Amino acid sequence: MTASTLPAVRRRAGEWGWIGLAFAFLALLACWPLWSDDYGLSVVRDILVFGLLALSLDYLWGKAGVLSFGHAAFFGIGAYSMAIFGPLAAGAGANAATVGLLAGLAIAAAVAGLIGYFLLFGGVRGPYFTIVTLAVSLVAQHIAIGWSEVTGGDAGLIGAPPPGLEIGGFSVLLFDAASLYYLVLVIVTAVLLGLWVALRGRYGRALAAIQDNELRAQTLGYNTSAYLLLVFVISSALAALAGGLYASLSSYVAPDLVGLFLSTEVIVWVAVGGRGTLVGPVIGAFLVIRLQQEVSSIDFKIWPLFVGLFFVAMVFLFPRGLLPLLVQAVRRLLRSEVSR
Amino acid sequence: MTALLQGEKLSMRFGGIVALREVDLAVAAGELRCIIGPNGAGKSTLFNILAGTLRPTGGHVRLEGRELNGLPVHAFARAGISRKFQVPSLFGSLTVADNLAVAEHGPGPSWTTRDELLALLGLERQASVPAAALAHGQKQWLEIGMALMAGPKVLLLDEPTAGLTAEETLKTARLLQSLAGRMAIVVIEHDMAFVRALACPTLVLHQGRVIAQGPFGEIERDHTVRDIYLGRH
Amino acid sequence: MQDVVSLVLNALTLISILMIVALGLAIVFGLMNIINMAHGEFVTLGAFTLSLVQSLGGSYWMALVIAPLVGATLGAILERGLIRFLYARPLAAILATWGVSLIVQQVLQLTFGAAPIAASGPFEGSVKILGASYPAYRLLLIALAFATVAFVIWVMKRTRFGLDLRAVIQSREIAQTLGIDAGRIATLAFAGGTAIAALAGVLVAPLTKVIALMGANYLAPSFFVVIVGGAGSLPGVIAGSTVVGGLETVLNYQVPVTLSQALVLITAVIIVRFRPRGLIPA
Description:
The complex is a heterotrimer. Chain A is mostly helical. Chain A is built from 14 helices and four strands. In chain A, the strands form two sheets. Chain A has a two-stranded antiparallel ribbon with strand order 1-4. In chain A, strand 2 and strand 3 form a beta hairpin. In chain A, helix 11 packs across helix 12. The longest helix of chain A has 27 residues. The N terminus of chain A is likely disordered. By secondary structure, chain B is an alpha/beta fold. In chain B, helix 6 packs parallel to helix 7. The radius of gyration of chain B is 17 Å and the shape is globular. Chain C is mainly alpha-helical. Chain C has eleven helices and two strands, in the order ααααββααααααα. Chains A and C meet through helix 4, helix 5, helix 11 and helix 13 of A and helix 4, helix 9 and helix 11 of C.
């Protein structure tokens, strides 16, 4: 009862570390408007949207072990759907952005469902799957640039509707910086909480099992292809949610929102924050984008070089992520304090 | 008597090599059955077909008369066929208790619970240890436990005593005998001492064919079988 | 008639390009299960070699010899210095080679700038074939691509190295117990693959804009070729190139380029569903 329960306690302690970190992080963000001006709010808000994108990839890569090089494509589907269908739905009044958002979610889920069905049920896994998602990203980028009658080509599109809601006689359109900021914060918190709760029990255990040894999970009766397909579809829809939010908030979309480079950067955010930790990738987005601003202020051309070096370093030096190393170090420090 | 698990004229060809030639097998509910044969006799191929991980090039697999051919692996498991792999195949990053929990599907076994099973397997003290940290013998037992948690009608065990000590082997034999009756158990084994301890009806495979069948005592006295094991063929 | 001839020749040009770019990728993928995301950058390096050789007064033919040497050297360095340590971690290999790809792109861009640099073929002019006039250089490209594929098939089937290589592809362990130095074979095969990619760079350079980021355009299509055709199989590369290149050429006559790319992607994905190991598996 004593010795055998130790690892479980330690494991739970590890989880509590992340929960504490998530709580502190979200509390800090909730208080941020107290001492920030509108510009500061919009900067943090945009990074949070990218944090949501990182979170969506972590659900797929961290929790199900499927690495996608195509998440920017789904982010782009969400963003472009907002900029294309939003204005078309001007008749819906304050609901225009909601229409654009739902269209984006539906299209992203349909595309992911189609591609995911053929690949996953065809037994395509691991590196093969990653390669096809890379191709998806490239094709999406070409469509965004090439199909200019619809997408605006290189120039992009302006006029995505601002977030709002209209039910019966009640109507609200969000314009001011603080409301928009809290809207994003609430959505990110809700998705974070939702994924955490969903992945705590049976479902998370099944995904962990599939990631560990898929054939074994199959012989235990799990339809693993169906599990992975569902994760891929939901994760892609979440990426589209982030994209739709981004377009609605900035009222503007451009082809770099679907590019392969954005897909690459999302992977960096997740890797820095620690894959599989959910809140880590959101924080990772903050850390990396902050660093990006610093580096780019010296010379914006050397940032991709930085990212390239990062990938090589990560594989050899910190395969589980940077933030987990930090969390571990803090925990070790605390424990040695306690035992002293 | 209709068989619970039935293999009919099962054949498997890999390119030009025939691994299995029209093998017939019928296992009744609650029966304990051993399959023996030298290396390359086709034992693992037969198992992979019965568990759905290989699709036979000829023949049928039926469970309670229902055709299973062509179904995906997970459907075999759902139908009631559980399998333990030859090399311990666990979810190393999950705890022992979580490994059992993952294996529990739908109603689970009616005759035991996760905690009882942990006690039966002698693993209650390791419940929250990651499975990768277990000793070899404990891994073999945990894997049997995982197969049991699915509440199977048929339990397929591929060399359950590989790498176990003589004492552990005997314990495993006693465990299987206590389980027989609740479900059908089919065991592939190399270790003759273990098969002798099980004392069950035995089927001998050689070069992809069934060459003998019957109680183990008789099989052991069979000249052809002895010749094969002594390498005179 | 003329239309049909030029359609066929256009298809052959694209198929040749795909084939020769995908060839090295397929060898490396089939041999070591390593997806080299920096493969496209070796095409870029080949094209830059041509440009550099020509700007120093050298000829196209000279570059055709030098570029594969450059590709082989850098490939061997990459294999020994990085990829060697990642054979057991395929996803990590993807990330690391992706990093290398970004680094090469940026170093080239910082050195040579973002604007296209000059590279030209050995001759200009057209040839009349069955009434259709077709650029002579493209015919050379087709001939060289097929010659390269034939050469690689010869190496694989008829030389001791090819035999060892096929043994390693079948089973690394067994090959090693037979005394084959699998590590050396892996380095050589990888260097061979990147040499062919650099050669492909020389071949395509006169037809395209030579820029630091050009490799990305070849990466995804050549992966399609490998996935559709079958990893590690030379006949698979030919079949995959024919399907992907033929389809894209035909579609380009009917629909806008962006749509044809999307259709090729969808076709590849559907083929994978029904032939998970490719059209002609190894």
